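Quick entry, no commentary yet.
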Amino acid sequence: MTVLSSRNPATGEETPTGLRATTTEEVDRVVTEAQAAVPALTALGREGRARLLEAMADRLEESRARLVESAMSETGLPRPRLEGEVGRTSFQLRLFAEAVREGSFLEAAIDHAGQTPLGPAPDVRRMLVPLGPVAVFGASNFPLAFSVPGGDTASAVAAGCPVVVKAHESHPLTSQLAFDALRAAVEDLGLPPGTVGLVHGREAGADLVVHPLIRAVGFTGSPAGGRALLDLVNARPDPIPFYGELGSLNPLVVTPGAAVARSAAIAEGLAASITGSAGQLCTKPGLVFVSAGEAGDVLVDELAAILAGSVAQPLLNVGIADSYREILVRLATAPGVTAAVTAQEQSEPAWAAAGLLVTGSAGLPEILEECFGPAAVVVRYANEADLVAALRQVPGSLTASIHSETDESVLTRRLVEAVAPIAGRLVFNGFPTGVRVSWAQHHGGPWPSTNTLHTSVGVTAVRRFLRPMVWQDAPQELLPEELRDEHTGTPRRVDGTLHT
């Protein structure tokens, strides 16, 4: 029996948790309970699921003080950031409740029987239905918003799927507290306990992914971890959807005009985006393209001065800190790379200082590796052709950002054409860190940033945990409420016409 411990990355202090790794037999029990909860979630209907999501938000808000204190001690993240995470997490639960009530996510469509140009046609009615129990892997860098009660859990519950979360090893106590809040909400509505479940330990995570009753997996983490889980999924007798958010360089381009017009402001914003949350954000701009010449020199010097004067911060755990230092050294020793800011060694193993590397576009292939922590690589480009050629070598990312001036519209359009194929979100004259939770958001991108076309943030994240189903010539009483003739509470396309 493996007993779990919790370590404060800021102090190195270890705390006993009273928790232990979940055994294979226990994983089976938890997943079986999740499957048993499917009928109750179905019977809830959309209004009931909306109330469940709101009850979860209420319970998390009630547990705010304990959650923040626990997360501070397990992640080293500052109180304001974690307070914001509680607010973000409860907000997204309530946003999904609104979406469930509104109903357009079902994509309901009705084609009545009748004559068509191809002859007589049957009555066909289509909508999206829940997949079944979903496995969610909590992320290290968001102990709330991408962990036990995070967006994957919220969107799966909104879809009508029971959820089993694999707690992250870096914050087991916070995971347990968050789970207790969600389970209390389930009990408030008299639902089966299997509506939400929790398992601990790496072996439990592997058992979860291969369990035959699990119908989809949501994962946020490293490319290596994602590949390992994807291999398990593909080895199943029945491969299931695996939605992985993995690694991202998030290129940011500063045009010559922008460097001349506002180098100080861009340098300040970049430094904040690189070092915010100790650089442990999936949208951190890790690759910054700056023009050669005096204006670019000024911007790079200003950025280096800010980063050199920034304070060291604790990373989420010693393993992440070790990886940060190893990758930074590897990048710094690549041909043509110089260190504008050297990340100074820290006495505490989980602490790390900011770093900044500089190279020319010719050295780009050697430095296309994510460095998870407060560091970035600046690539100096000679001209537009050099810049566009370099951007076409960048692997898929969650975001791409362009800082340009209004009189550079032709250049900006060409840059958009270059980066659009490699990014899921384009940011103009801003910075990619900070992901709005909304209907229009997309948090995804081409491989290796994700392995999916879907988003993990915002309302359409629910689409990952639904599948299409058609009823042909079905009696009215056997149809879902949303597909019956008399129903008016859901946007639907009827005989080709959208009814809202």
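second:
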Amino acid sequence: MGKNPKALWDNCLSLIREIVTEQQYKAWFAPIVFEKYDEDSQTLLVQVPSMYVYEYLEQYYVGLLSKVLTRCFGQQIQLTYRIVTDKTNGLSQDVEAEAPVAIEPAPATNRGNKAPTVLDAAPQDLNPQLDIHKTFRNYIEGDSNKLPRTVGLSIAEHPGKSTFNPFFVFGPSGCGKTHLINAIGVRCKEMYQHKRVLYVSARLFQVQFTDASRQNTVNDFINFYQTIDVLIIDDVQEWATAEKTVATFFHIFDHLFRLGKQIILASDRPPVDLKWLQDRMLTRFSCGLIAELEKPNVQLCKDILDAKCRRDGLKIPEDVIQFIAETANGSVRDLEGVINSLLAYSVVYNSNIDMRLAERIIKRAVKIDNKPLTIDDILDKVCNHYGVSQQSIFSRSRKRDYVLVRQISMYLAQKYTKMPASRIGQLIGGRDHSTVIHSCSAIEQRLKIDKAFSSEVSSIENSFKLRDKK
């Protein structure tokens, strides 16, 4: 290479310092420490003081870093961060930088005094508006998202060439819709850099259309969107009162569809529940794939939490992970919010992450569903706690473990629901009311004399206690 790698890195910092403000340089670039450069693999390793600094650099300065590193080190340079996760014990983790080339925003041409927007971009300069941190690599698969995730990956790798066009994904808030459709766009852009991929919220699309109408440039607006190869629109349910926006979108949709361009839409409800949707559009949607994203179950929530803990270098006890997974209402956003809050509290107050802290955070960060518990809720938590299937509980098996779980479920159902014993028995394997009464009596007696068993049942009830249960 000739020049000392440390000197090359210093050159990079000098170039960056000329581009950003002094405050930005001191906040984000001065703390970066050169570690080493491996000439064989052309990998530069630098140390950053926290996960927050790493994420900020990757979100806002990935393009700048790529340009200066390429200029100083060469085209094939690979940047790797060493993130300090525990200063006291000297713990860290290495993370490769995201590849910025495919989705780096390019400067738009300024037209007169008008502020440049995404609509001003020349074909080769289009900013996809994607969140590069929402990828398939960190989109954890589970029963609730397996089909949409599999289809989404297929679409990303073969946009417009599969039968899944358009791809309409729907589900409740916090189930991972935005992450999935972003991941499709990021993966597609990684594989096909020349394709014009665009992610836009339904609200922004409507604002752009309104501005175009006021400025008498609707034809330009339509022509721009008709050049997109992969169009991703989020939260289309927000078009409920936007008749003109919907009519214009259908014009764009029809053009892209006939050309075999990929269209991806996300909503919090299925197409049939979108009252503003015209029959002709409903027909178009039905010829592709309509996929539901369900709220993640407890196991998927645990997997998501475990993955985030590994990524952020957190150590959280298993019982705390279980508690968070059971009380976060199946919302990925709530899970991430709770983990971030736990991290902040533990750092600021220099305290361990335990159940007491988790309970405090949950009460402040998570909006608990006030709907009364159902038999399904109770069966899900009890069966998950003991690691048995509901089919086993519904069966006629007299296996001791199955009988115990069945009796606990009946006891909790009687305690937390207003159903009569006959109805509880019918819903738990078709038993009669006498079986329910006997089961409840057996559990009550054991709770009085067996402290370990009482503690075990209490741990199950712990996930119910934040509900309006009485």
